Each structure stands twice: as structure tokens, then as C-alpha cells.
Amino acid sequence: MSDLIGIVIVIGAANVIALPFLLFGMMYKMRTKRWTRVEGEIVPFPKQEAIVKNIPKRVRRFVTVSNAKPTVRFEREDGVEQIVTAGISHDPPLTIGRQIGVYYNPEQPTKITLEHFAHNGNALLLVSMIIYVLSFIPIAVILSS
Questions:
Q1: Which of 32, 45, 90, 123 could anchor a disulfide with 71, C-beta 3.0 to 4.6 Å?
Q2: How far is it, in rounded angstroms, from Cα 99 to Cα 133?
Q3: What residue numbers bound the domain in which 84 lies?
Q4: How far is 18 from 88, CA to CA, in rounded Å?
Q5: How far is Cα of residue 45 from the mean position of the Cα atoms in its chain?
Q6: For the whole prediction, is pTM greater than 0.70?
Q7: Do 113 and 32 form a contact (C-beta atoms < 8 A)?
Q8: Secondary structure (3-state) at 35
Q9: Can you tell me whether residue 68 is helix, strand or coil?
Q10: DSSP 61
């Protein structure tokens, strides 16, 4: 009976930890199915351009301005150019000038998901799978005792 209680506790703990990752990962994956996909380009965010312009040229090579939250420029299906900064940051940052797939909400074009492992839900789904797989270790220990 105590083995069964231990297994239930492990499964419950794994679900409490992994379920948010699983749900958010699925939410991001569903966006890519419903939203419009276009090609975009990583560009400097507006404040970054202003900061770099104000730094003397002889000092610029020593200054690093992070583009950790990538800003992407893309053309919507209606022909309007859109520039949006993503809500998820990267370390290391995405390279300025990189071409990348962009999924945007046609009703709210400032809501985007990039076609990138960290943005499209794959990273969250991977974390949830790792947690679920690791939960088998204590279950195996309980069952073997």
C-alpha cells in the first residue's frame, strides 16, 4: 500500500511541475497552426539604433548592445510592414539580419511567434517530456524495493 502512495505522490508531483510547461508549449504550437506565417528579418530594436548612433565611432567597437529580445521586421499579407519585438529573450541573442519565419495573429499583428526552438513551444514541450521521463526513476525505485 505504501508503494502505491509513493507512486501516486511521484506522478502527482511530476504533473504539478510538468503540466504548465506542457500546456504553454501546446498553446504556442497551436498558434503556429492558426496564425499567418511570413518571412521576417531580425533588426536592431529602435532604442538600440539610437544608442549606437550616439556613441563615438572610435568607442563603438568596445560597446555591446544586446538584442536579447529579438525585434523582427516582416511584411503582413496585406502589404503593411510591421516591426515587433518578441516577448521571449535569447542568450545568445539572435543575429541582426537573420531571416526567420514569423507567425503573427492577423487580428493583432503585434502578437508574434518566431519559428525558433525557444519561441514555437518546442523548448517547453521538451522540458515537460524530460520531467515526465525523470519521474519514472523514483517510480522504478519504489517498485524495485
A1: 45
A2: 35
A3: 2-144
A4: 20
A5: 18
A6: no
A7: yes
A8: coil
A9: coil
A10: T
